[in-house]
Amino acid sequence: MRNAGLLLLILATSGVTLYESTPSSAQSPALVVLVRHGDTAPNSGSDPDLTASGVKRAQDLAYALSGTKFSAIITTQLVRTKQTAQPVAMALGLTPEVISYAASQREAHVKSVADAVRKQSGSSVLVVGHSTTIPLIIGALGGPRLLEICEIVFDNLFTLVPAGANMQFIHSRYGAASPTVGPDCK
Fold first, then answer.
1. Which own/partner contact pairs does 114-121 have at CB distance under 8 Å and 24+ positions apart?
2. Of 80, 91, 154, 183, whose Cβ has the fewest other Cβ atoms within 10 Å?
3. In Å, how far are 30, 97, 124, 139 from 2, measured between CA atoms?
């Protein structure tokens, strides 16, 4: 829990957006950090590797989270999520849990990820997902309902921390800034 407090202090002093707490489930991890996979090339197929910028972003994520002792990392089977999680996993000696994702079964995937996160009661969890799943997972874990993440945005870092019967939600950024986008784009 000490790491969660340190992360909150760092985030609070680095221009983050803090949202109102929302009800959380009775069983919660101590800290959940959620990110979209790193940068991929547009129109690069259904299972692309990270670009050089995406690899750098994955390293930046590991650096940004270096003070946090995660007990679990959750990714999908897709290469880009695994590559994004790899530097954090290597630093901690963890093997990410892979929860299969198919766009046609998005709701089932979101439920499976939320259930896996809740099983880590009292621990810290990193979730690496996709533009269409991360906002839904945040909502399923008691955070606010967010729009899908825009295709060109890769620098969001979302944090959920139980605060009594509520879930505190923090939106910050890490690594190189994504292009400036409109208000409907997270």
1. 114/140, 114/141, 116/72, 116/74, 117/29, 117/32, 117/72, 117/74, 117/141, 118/25, 118/27, 118/28, 118/29, 120/29, 120/71, 120/72, 121/27, 121/28, 121/29
2. 183
3. 10, 24, 11, 25
Residue located via tokens 């295709």 = 151
pTM of the model: 0.86
**Tokens read off for 52:** 């050089």
- Cα separation, 54 vs 153, whole angstroms: 11
Query: Which amino acid, one-letter code, is at 124?
Result: S
Q: Tell me the per-residue pLDDT of 154-178, one tens digit each, with 9 for 90 and over.
A: 999 999 999 888 889 999 999 999 9
Q: How far is CA 73 from CA 87, 103, 127, 142, 151, in A?
A: 11, 21, 6, 19, 23
